[in-house]
Amino acid sequence: MSAFLRRHWPLLLLLVPAITLRVLTWLAYRPALLFIDSFRYIDNLHALRADQLDPIGYDLVLRPLLAVGGLAWVAAVQHAGGVLIAIGTYGLVLRLGGRPWVGALAAAPVLLDAYQLQIEQNIMSEVTFEAVLLGLLWLLLGRGTPGWKRAGAAGLLLGFGVLTRLVGISLALPLLVFLVVAGGAWRHWTGWRRAGAGLLGLLAVLVPYSARVHAETGKWGLTGPSGNMLYGRTAAVADCANLHLDPALMVFCPAEPREKRLVDNYTHADLDPNWPGPLPPGADKAALAHEFAIGVLKAQPRDVAEAVLNDFAKSFAWTREQDPTDVPLDRWQFQPSYPQWADQSLIDLVTLQNDGVVASVDQPLAKILRDYQLGGGYVSGGVLGIGALLGLVTVVRRKKPLDRAQAGALLAASSGIVLLFASAVFQFSWRYQLPALVLLPIAGALGFTTLTSAGRKRLAAFPDDVDAGALDDFRARHPGLKLAPLTVVIAAYNEAGGIGEVLEKMPDQCLGMPVDVLVVVDGATDDTATIAEDHGAYVCVAPRNRGQGAALRLGYHLAAGSGAEYVVTTDADGQYDNSELETLVRPVAEGDADFVTGSRRLGHEEADSRVRWLGVRVFAALASVLTGRRITDTSFGFRAMRAELACSVPLHEPQYQSSELLLGVTARGARVVELPMSMRLRKAGKSKKGGSLVYGANYARVMTGTWWRGYVLRRGRTRAGRAART
């Protein structure tokens, strides 16, 4: 049990406020919230007619729930569903390689977003649709590359999702593309067979339902009243003064100024028997409205496209604001009184029939929820945009075939974006953003996991098998070696072109102490080791390449175990100025510091990358916040320290070690000093660092992880130990 709590505590911590908020919501609005659509669902509950505006998917869920309990029971189940969706999100991220805290961040939007809480209390289809979305991701990603059976099941599930929310049809594209390319199978029939199975599963649901719609309405489709989406979108932007259409069509051009036209009003205008006004005898109103919409599209394609793109962009806005032409935001906000989307008599009739009570609001609880929502208790669209971006940029890893986390990130990101865009084509509403609370956080979590996976393999405790082999080889070649009090440790991997010059410029004495150089060759395939030995350095050879962090850790322990009192690190590429060695070592040698690091920001820097220049400053700011002390440069490789201090910090990062060591020694209370130093451009070879984005993501991960272990967990264990002793 304790192991379970230690692993999953981030999610468990979030569940406490999430469940509390849901209980408050359930108690505040009794028995449930009823929106306009709710009455249509309830009215069609038993007949399950296909001629309605909404397909019957949600009714198929609602009907058995109401057979067991009332509207309050449905709301409770939907709240439980929201929690389960979040837990499923967390589990999927962990299944695909994410860390618990990353999975918890992905689950947080569904758990804590106030608009999500409000929609769960509504008798509405959103929670069911969100469950379908998560189910699709689990089907496609949860157990390796899907075969044709799982592909077919995904098609069936998506078909049900379309009957729950029509906008789900837009997900057919990312679903089929994924089935074709998953596992790199697009070059073979395997991927195309999978896509065929998925398409057949989808059609197996939609074709029979469309046939039923045809039988009841005389037309093929998935809904009864057309809702005339195209007319609603075009009527809102139609420039009536400059349109040159048939007079029989111009009657469909709205009289309101364009800046006051609400798309939703025109989309459902056909529900008004008096719309749009007098028409010629025998005229087909729907056909004429469609013809008008086509005319606007031809005359004003740019205006229509601009309106769609503007609405799509609103989904990623940082704040919840609305234009006069948007669906009113207060529809999805907690209100101090019961929302009146129908006559009070009808509301009371529905609640009395199902729950035996009239609709009511606990105003103190409603105020708490409203204050939470209006006070920022929601997920910003900008955060969702970051999730989408992280999911999409995983293509920079260029793995062939894509690993599961990368494939999942791309699938979730593309699905979320397609869904939001398809909704924007219809009209903008903050309600339509809610499914993105499931998809885009998963995309961001898996994208982050993918981008940082290159550095995720941590080193085992020292010495591991590679360390032991390298130490045995070194001691066999240098039995009984006693290193100088000041030893310079250099990690080198394929640095034959530059290490010779670095060693030539290394002083033999520093502050009256002799200087030895220990080069740890990290599985190099060139002549680095031979050149280093020819220049008088002691060389320890690791049999395989593990990363600079692994090589330096080996060097720290070897130097300390061979008698060195002070250790200096520098690079093998000539970026640091050996003439500054005395300045670097003096504070440690004179007892004024335990750890000294240079700083290019305090000194001089030759920069060849604006991204790296910015990264140095961003990570310095992050380190300053985490440690509570001013740090200007976290990745400067020219450092001096007491030898035993370097060995006292647990080091597990093979590549991103500079911040791990710096934050590790500060967490132990070491006296750390930064001094102005120079950093030049590399003299030879090329950097072993990856792409800027991947490297930066890993660097941030290591910094925050080291801070957590050193400043939070270690100090927490120390306090617990002291308490136990007392």
Descriptive labels:
726 residues; alpha/beta; Spore Coat Polysaccharide Biosynthesis Protein SpsA, Chain A; 3 domains; eight-stranded mixed beta sheet; two-stranded antiparallel sheet; 29 helices; 56% helix; elongated
Question: Could you please describe the fold and organization of this structure?
Answer:
It is built from 29 helices and ten strands. The chain is α/β, with parallel strands linked by helices. It folds into three domains: 362 residues, no CATH class; 79 residues, no CATH class; 214 residues, Spore Coat Polysaccharide Biosynthesis Protein SpsA, Chain A (Alpha-Beta Complex). Strands 3, 4, 5, 6, 7, 8, 9 and 10 form an eight-stranded mixed beta sheet that branches. Strands 1-2 form a two-stranded antiparallel sheet. Strand 4 and strand 5 form a beta hairpin. Helix 4 packs across helix 6, helix 4 packs parallel to helix 20 and helix 11 crosses helix 14.
Could you give the topology of this structure?
Elements: H1 2-28, E1 29-30, H2 36-43, H3 57-68, H4 71-95, H5 100-112, H6 114-121, H7 126-141, H8 148-164, H9 172-181, H10 189-217, H11 229-235, H12 247-250, H13 263-267, H14 285-299, H15 301-314, H16 344-355, E2 360-361, H17 363-374, H18 381-392, H19 404-426, H20 436-452, H21 465-477, E3 486-492, H22 499-504, E4 509-510, E5 513-522, H23 528-534, E6 538-542, H24 548-561, E7 566-571, H25 581-589, E8 595-605, H26 610-627, E9 639-642, H27 643-648, H28 657-667, E10 672-679, H29 692-725
Parallel strand pairs: 3-5, 3-7, 5-6, 8-10
Antiparallel strand pairs: 1-2, 4-5, 7-9, 8-9
InterPro entries: Glyco_trans_2-like, Glycosyltransferase_2, Nucleotide-diphossugar_trans
GO molecular function: transferase activity
Domain Glycosyltransferase 2-like: 487-645
